[in-house]
Every structure is written in C-alpha cells, then in structure tokens.
Write a structure and sequence with these properties.
mainly beta; six-stranded antiparallel β-barrel; 4 helices; globular
C-alpha cells in the first residue's frame, strides 16, 4: 500500500527540513515589532476579523488542520496574510487573519469563535473581504496560490519503492475472455496457446467501463464500493550518482471500483484508465491526494547561486517515467528524497547544473513536489531555463 505522509512543514523560526536544512536561508532582516522579532511587517488586523496569534512551534500546515480541518488549505491562511512574503517562515507573535472565506472548525454551533489571543470568545460579524492596508508585497506574494500540477500528474504517474513490493490483489480475468471462439484445432490435440491460455482473449487492452475479475473476495477483506489503483511494476531504478539500485518504478495504469464480492473472487469495473489495463496487473488501495497549491515566484538569479560544496550531498533528479533524456516545464519526474527527509507536498526545489571546476553552479529550473513516498517524491517541472537532466542536484527554495 502506498504510504501518504501529512505535515507540510512551514517552519516557525526553525528550518523546514532536518536533512536539508543546511541549504535553507531564512530572512536576514529581523526587526522588533511590539514584543517580538519578525522578518515581516504585519499590519493591524481589520476590525472584527478572527485572528490567531502565532505560537512557538506553529506551522501553517498544522494551523490549517486545526482551523479549517484540512492541512492542504494552508494556502488559504497565506492568502489571508499577504504580509508573509515567504510561506516557509512564520514568526511567533505575528497575527494571522483566519477568515472570513473559510469558517474555522473551532467555531461553535452558536457562532462563538476565536478571539485575538486564539481563545474562545463572543461571536462577531464577519467583515467584508477587502485589501489589507499597509502591507508590503512583492510580485511573488501578490499572486494567488495556484495548483502546482494536475490530477493526472499524481494519479497517472507512479512511484518508486522496494524491488519486490507485495500487493494485496491482482486482476485475474476480464469479461472478454469467453466472448471469443475456442482456438482448439478440431481433431488436433494441439491447442494454440495465447497470453492467457488457450482461449482467444477478444480484447486484452482494457479501459474505462470494462468489467474485470479480482483474486480476492469477502474472505480476503474486499467489499463492494472499494476503490483500488491499478499498478504495473516496471524497471529497476539505478541512482545516477551512486550507480546502486535505488528501487523499482511502479506505474499507475488506472483505477477500479469493486461491484460485488464472492468468497474468493470479486467483480469490479475500470473507472479510470491512464494506459491500457492488463489482466495480471496488481492492485493497491486507492488513496486520494489533492494537488498541492503554491505561488510560483521568480527563480533564483544566476548571479546569486549556492556554493558548489552545499550541493555535494544534495538531492537529485532520480528518474523519469518515460525514460526522457531532457526535462522541460510541465514534465513529471522523481527525486531521491521523500518523507524520510521531511519532504512534503508543495515543497519547491531549485534545480542546478554543476559548472566546471572553479566556477559556481548555475540555477536552471524549479520543480514542485506533488506526492511523497518514503524515500522518493514525485515532482513536476514548474520552470526551466534549459533542459533538465537526471542527476541534476536540487536545493530547497
């Protein structure tokens, strides 16, 4: 089963990733506002607005989970507080306007909400949404968050895992296997053997709407209505730097819904097909993954690169599902860091091209993390100045 890892770590006076923290650069111009230090210029919240005061250890991810009941709505907090010019850094003591676009889940049934100290207080009328005065903005902060990819980038790509990953169920047949003629040659004792035995499979490239049979039933825990992702194990993945086997690429080919179950088998329908679905393909429980949001800002300038030594142990572009040699904007790839290294959906990495000895690396593109596994992540190229290659090093933006 593919693991999903929550916790988009947007840090509060701490680095977002333990393993990659050496490459992060916090804002340098801290100044005192009231009784606390911050890099930003927080305005006075609009009268009547619901406000949460940032506490030590808070993250936008955790606050969105608490207030909106969905951590993936952290861009809503960012959108309501445009004075925060870099969402990776928030500071205890700064105010966060919570609404009014999304009602906090901490709001009680009688309308009671949070007061200025983040505690339960009397209900207040929600103010009309208006621009916040006195906010210093940049081109990066002025734009609204946008999806960093498409659903097909998540559900029709795949992931990298152990070489011999077990799967709970497989597709063992389809409705078409007995619709064609028998291929026995009359009086001959020799039957024509095909991919699935001596029966002529009238159609083996299955697609949306086709009915299939699974090798698990009620005894195996299957139930009507359950959704499963169709997975096709592919080639071994060799790390471009160490030249050691990193794992195996598992490609998503579609999605099926269980219609009915018997004791040891089940009948299902293909409800999504990225590629032809084949009898024999593996199945794993389907887990919905929303496409992360973010603001696409200007790339790191070429005259302000990171030093070459900071990229020696940096993450790299590991693999491309179609074995592409050159990657450009909108291409999907995989990197060699995952949840074990605190990578989370929505993270953005600058892609570098190492220069000849004595010259600094060149920033050539950016990738955004769409989905995270244990030791690798699925990314999408969101900006590229030139072709990106497998093996190019990455630095958290």
């Amino acid at each position: 089963m593919r693991a999903r890892f929550s916790g988009l770590i947007l840090v509060s006076l701490a680095l977002a990733s333990t393993a990659l923290s050496a490459a992060d650069r916090p804002p340098q111009d801290l100044h005192q506002v009231g009784d606390h230090w911050t890099a930003w210029d927080p305005p006075v919240p609009p009268e009547g607005a619901q406000v949460q005061i940032i506490q030590p250890g808070d993250t936008l991810w955790d606050l969105a989970a608490k207030l909106y009941k969905d951590p993936y709505l952290w861009p809503q907090l960012w959108e309501n507080n445009r004075y925060i010019l870099d969402a990776h850094w928030i500071y205890p003591g700064d105010p966060l306007v919570i609404g009014p676009t999304v009602a906090p889940v901490d709001q009680l049934a009688d309308g009671t909400g949070l007061d200025d100290e983040g505690e339960i207080g009397p209900p207040e009328e929600a103010p009309e949404e208006a621009p916040i005065e006195g906010v210093q903005t940049s081109s990066a902060a002025a734009g609204s968050p946008v999806p960093l990819g498409y659903e097909s980038d998540v559900y029709c790509s795949g992931y990298i895992d152990d070489l011999d990953k077990p799967f709970p169920y497989r597709i063992i047949g389809s409705e078409f296997e007995k619709l064609g003629p028998d291929l026995d040659r009359g009086s001959s004792d020799v039957s024509i053997q095909g991919s699935y035995g001596s029966v002529n499979t009238a159609r083996y490239n299955l697609t949306v709407g086709d009915v299939i049979y699974l090798d698990g039933g009620s005894q195996g825990g299957l139930a009507p209505g359950e959704m499963y992702t169709v997975v096709s194990p592919k080639q071994k993945v060799v790390h471009p730097k160490t030249r050691e086997v990193f794992g195996r690429y598992y490609h998503y080919t579609g999605r099926v819904r269980v219609l009915s179950v018997q004791e040891t088998t089940a009948i299902a329908e293909i409800v999504q097909a990225c590629d032809p679905v084949l009898v024999g393909a593996a199945l794993q429980p389907f887990e919905p993954e929303p496409v992360p949001l973010g603001r696409v800002a200007a790339m790191r300038p070429i005259n302000y690169p990171s030093p070459a030594q900071s990229l020696e142990d940096a993450p790299v572009i590991l693999f491309t599902q179609d074995e592409l040699v050159s990657l450009f904007q909108d291409h999907v790839a995989f990197i060699d860091r995952g949840a074990d290294s605190d990578v989370t959906p929505g993270d953005v990495f600058t892609v570098y091209r190492l220069n000849r000895p004595g010259l600094p690396p060149m920033p050539i593109g950016e990738v955004a993390v769409l989905s995270v596994q244990k030791k690798s992540s699925t990314v999408r190229v969101i900006q590229s100045k030139t072709a990106l290659f497998v093996g190019d090093p990455l630095e958290p933006k």
